[in-house]
Amino acid sequence: MTKTSPPSIIALDGPAASGKSTLGKKLADSLGYLFFDTGVMYRAITWIALQHDMNLRAEAEITGLAQKAQIDIRPPSKNDGRGYDIVIDEKDVTWAMRDGDVDANVSIVSAYAGVRQALSEKQRRIGLRGQVVMVGRDIGTVVLPEADLKVYLDASAEERARRRYEEIITRGDKADYDEILKNVIERDHIDSTRAVAPLRPADDAVILDSDKLDADQVLARVLELCK
Ligand code: DC
């Protein structure tokens, strides 16, 4: 009997805080694949722009920044819940990427066509090497339409806000649930109505609802799909 190998390129898309990163990391670990969270790249550009007091509405300047930025994603150096280190100019900015300021502004930056083109090209080059779980909004539709398996992970805005709230509290920081919910709804709206690469499931994606399944059940379903 011949043994079939698991899909080599796995695209995992879905809205903010749907559990994609948790699932992606576990899935990549169990298959021995690279885990690549593309949201980090949009966050990094936003973070650098905020650090340099750049005008986020200045599309040409922000696009120029995305074209030349050196964002390094390395294996995790600390055991504090991170799946990787994000290093910019030799500074560990892994958690700074999750700041409320970045959350509130990243949708503006990720709506720019030039920013998306610059970052998608980098993502595609990495994805085509195979043995990868790539997580984002447009991986199955734009970045890697040839992916062998496409999963779209969905959950209600309330459930996603609750998870983000817990994540922040667990880190020992302060959080306001209503504020987070408002931000999740606002980001959904911008991400799914933008002109370029809007958030939507690919026609051939398997849609999973994580309101009804816990993290282990979702992982079990996707591992089943990999067989
Ligand atoms: O997954 P996340 O919350 O870290 O993503 C941050 C932002 O980046 C989100 O508002 C949408 C954007 N994003 C995107 O437009 N395309 C991707 N492939 C990944 C993220």
Give keywords.
Rossmann fold; alpha/beta; binds 2'-deoxycytidine-5'-monophosphate; single chain; 227 residues; 48% helix
Following the backbone from N to C, one meets helices and strands in this order, namely EHEHHEEEHHEHEHHEH
Question: Over the alpha carbons, how many angstroms does the gyration radius reach?
Answer: 17 Å
State which percent range the strand residues make up: 5-15%
> Major β-sheet, in short?
5 strands, parallel
Helical content class: 40-55%
Assign the CATH topology.
Answer: Rossmann fold
CATH C-level class: Alpha Beta
Mean of residue pLDDT? 92
The domain tally reads 1
**Ligands in the structure?**
2'-deoxycytidine-5'-monophosphate
How would you characterize the overall build of this protein?
By secondary structure, this protein is an alpha/beta fold. It is 48% helix and 15% strand. It contains 9 helices and 8 strands. The chain has helices spanning 20-31, 39-51, 59-68, 100-110, 113-127, 139-143, 157-170, 177-193, 215-226, and strands at residues 9-13, 34-37, 72-74, 85-88, 91-92, 132-136, 149-154, 206-209. Strand 4 and strand 5 (91-92) form a beta hairpin. Helix 1 packs across helix 9. 2'-deoxycytidine-5'-monophosphate binds at residues 16, 38-39, 42-43, 106-107, 110, 136-138, 187, 191.
List the SSEs and their pairings:
Elements: E1 9-13, H1 20-31, E2 34-37, H2 39-51, H3 59-68, E3 72-74, E4 85-88, E5 91-92, H4 100-110, H5 113-127, E6 132-136, H6 139-143, E7 149-154, H7 157-170, H8 177-193, E8 206-209, H9 215-226
Parallel strand pairs: 1-6, 1-7, 2-6, 7-8
Antiparallel strand pairs: 3-4, 4-5
This protein binds 2'-deoxycytidine-5'-monophosphate.
The site of 2'-deoxycytidine-5'-monophosphate (DC) has 13 residues, from helix 2, helix 4 and helix 8.
